[in-house]
Amino acid sequence: MEALQSFNVGTKVDWCFREDDAEQLEEVTFMRLFWAFKPYIDGFEYCRPVILIDGTHLYGPYPGVLLSATAVDGFSHILPLAFAIVESEKNSSWDWFMDRLRRLVVGRRHGICVISDKHLGIMAAMQKSGWCEPLDHHRYCVRHFATNFATKFKKAGLKDRLVELAYQVQPKKFKLLWGELLALEPRAVTWFEDKPVRNWSLAHDHEHHRFGIMTTNHAESWNKAIVDARRLPLTSLVRVLFHKTVEYFDQRRLEIASQVSKGQIFTKYASNFLNRAVRHSTGHSVKIFDRGTWLFQVVTRRDELKGGNTHTVRLMESSCTCGKLQTYRISCSHVIACCSHVKMNFHSFVGDWYVENQSKIYNGIFEPIPNKGDPRYPTELAFPRVVHDPDIGEEEGAKKNNEIRERDGFPEPGKAWRDFIERQLIL
Questions:
Q1: What phi and psi values does residue 322 have, to the nearest 5 degrees?
Q2: Is the omega angle on the peptide bond into residue 233 within 30 degrees of 0, that is, cis?
C-alpha cells in the first residue's frame, strides 16, 4: 500500500488495527483496510451522482469481506470507486467503510444517491455516516427488493409484477399496476408499510436521484469479474485489483477514442436510447400551446391497441409528463417530436454525462509499481509489521455464493440482464 501511494500520488488509503495494538510500533493486528485510486476519485466528479455499494466474501486463506463502491459512467460501464477489506458485514464495518467513502472519495459533493440492498448494516451506516436526506439519498436495489418480496409471498407471477411496478416512471401507470398487485395478494400492503415507496419506485423518486439505475448489478458484475482474485492472499488481491482497474481505465479510453474518431456525439448507451425514441416519435401528433415557454401537447401514435396517450412537454423546464426525460436525462420520443415540430435540435436535452464528460472521467494516469528491489521502490517504511488476526473466523455461510442468479427469476448481470432492462424500458 505504501508503494501504491508512493507511485500513484493522491491514492487514498486508510487502516484499522485491533484497538489494543494502537501503541505498538513493531507489529499490529489487521482489522480493516480502505483504498481508492486517484484517477477514479477524480473521474467520479464527471459521473452521474450515483454510487452502488455491495459486499462479497473472500474465499482464500484469510476470511473476510471485500466491500466496494461502484459508480457508472455514461456508457453504463463500471467505475470501481473504492474498496475495503473488513472482518465481516456487520454494522460497524459498513459504518467505517461509508465514513471513509464520504471523507476520502466523495468529499464535499452532495446529492449522491446510494443504491444497495437492505442489509441491516448498510441501513444503519447510511444514517450514522450522514448519507441521508436532504443532502444525500438512499435507494433500494429492485432485484434484491423483489427477491425479498417473493420470499414472503410465493404466489406465481408476483415477483415479476413488482419489478414492472418499480420500473414504471408514470404515476398513473404505477397506480394501475399497484391495484393489480394488491388484488392478487391483499396481504402485501402490510409488507410495504415500512418501505418508503420513493426508495424502490421510479414513479415516486420525484427528484429523479437514481437516474434510472435500479439495481446493484454493475457492482455485482465487478465482483464476478474478480472472483478468482477473491481467493488470493490480501496483498495479491490488492495487486490484482490495481491491475484490473488499470485495464478497465485503458479500455474505456480506447472506446472513447473510437467514438470520437467515428464522429459519434453520444455514448452507445445514450445513442441506443435516442434511436428507440426517434423511432417511436414518428407519427406523434404535436400541438404548440406557447412559443414563449415552449409548451407543447403530444398525442402518441396509435399502434393496434396501444398509443393515443396525451403528454405535456415543457422544453424550457426540460420536462415531459412521461417522466423519462427527467429520469434518464435523455430526450424521450415526445421531446424529439416537439423539437422536430419547431426545427429545434433535441441534442441539448441530453445530459453532459452522456457527451463531453466521458473523456474527463478517464483523464487520469496510473503509474506502474516496480518490483521490490528496484531502486525506486520504497525501502525504509515507517510502518509496523501487519499480521492477521487469528481470532477472526469465517462467518457461517461465507463460502456460499450469495448473489442472486437466474433460479430467482432474474438473468445474471451481463447481456441477458441488459436485454431484460431494455424490455422494461420499452414497456
A1: -70, -25
A2: no
The pLDDT assigned to 408 comes to: 39
Residue 50 is predicted with a pLDDT of 96
- pLDDT at residue 181 is higher than 80: yes
Q: How far is CA 167 from the centre of its chain?
A: 16
| Phi, psi of 228, deg, nearest 5 | -70, -35
Quick one: pLDDT band at residue 404, thresholds 50, 70, 90? very low
Q: Which residue has the higher pLDDT, 266 or 380?
A: 266
Q: How many residues can be counted in the chain?
A: 427
Give 28-52 as a 3 state SS string.
EEEEEEEEECHHHHHHHCCCCCEEE
Question: Which pTM value belongs to this model?
Answer: 0.86
User: pLDDT of 258-313, one tens digit each?
Assistant: 888 888 889 999 999 999 999 999 989 999 999 999 999 999 988 776 778 999 99
Domain boundaries, the chain: 2-141+215-257+366-395, 268-354
